[in-house]
Amino acid sequence: MELFKEVLKKNPSGPLAEEALFRLGEISHFSLGSSAQSIMYFQELLQLNKKGAFAHDAQNYVAEIVEFTFKDYEQAIIEYQKLIDRFDKEDEKGDHQYRIASVYFKMHNNEQALAEWEILLEDYPKSSWAEESHFKVVEILYTLQRCSEARQYFDDFLEKYPASKFKNEVEFIMASCLEEGGKLQEAYNRFKLLEKGYPYPAILKTKMDGLEKRMKKRKNKKK
Fold it and tell me: What are the distances in angstroms from CA 142 to CA 51, 111, 192?
């Protein structure tokens, strides 16, 4: 720390100052546990040169520290948006968009999280987060009781990702939509197909047991 501070004294601006500030920020956060101080160093670097060699990584650190260490979610969204707007790293913009959506989800703002994940699918369809984002859209639409829209995304999801690791969870959501729509037998049959692959068998069993009771009750009423 002292040596980098000496570098700053001798070089208050320019590439050496930028790297010194960056290293001071890293040491403060990762080695000394002083995250607030690290943000100050990163922000000072960004004031010196927003397009410098260390600017992108400094901004990324700021966004992550604000989200994960300080849990200041509204500020984290602003910091991730800066990464998208200020830097021409197309291969990483989808990552930052995913974080923005995830932060809104943490804030229980499902409507805005949905909008942000839809932006990712539209603007960054080749992102490594596209598949999971597609799943998240189906999940939130179900949570918002918008099953008709969820089914549209479901069909598109299966077409794009037929072997997805999220396939069984999406199928579970579609079966739940059938159940909520009163199509009990169809829902039961769909849940039944998930017995060998669904990652949460206890939840699946509870659903099926509940459906069996409802169908039995419905049948008795008709008699």
Answer: 42, 12, 20
Is the pTM here over 0.85, yes or no?
yes
Q: What is the DSSP string of 93-157?
A: HHHHHHHHHHHHHHTT-HHHHHHHHHHHHHH-TTSTTHHHHHHHHHHHHHHTT-HHHHHHHHHHH
Report the chain's mean pLDDT, rounded to a whole number. 96
For 43-63, the pLDDT digits (tens) are 999 999 999 999 999 999 999
Spatial separation of the C-alpha atoms in residues 25 and 55, rounded to whole Å: 12
Q: How far is CA 115 from CA 105, 112, 120, 121, in A?
A: 11, 5, 9, 10
189-216 tens-digit pLDDT: 999 999 998 999 999 999 999 999 999 9
Q: Cα Rg for the chain, rounded, in angstroms?
A: 24
- The single-letter DSSP state of residue 52 is S
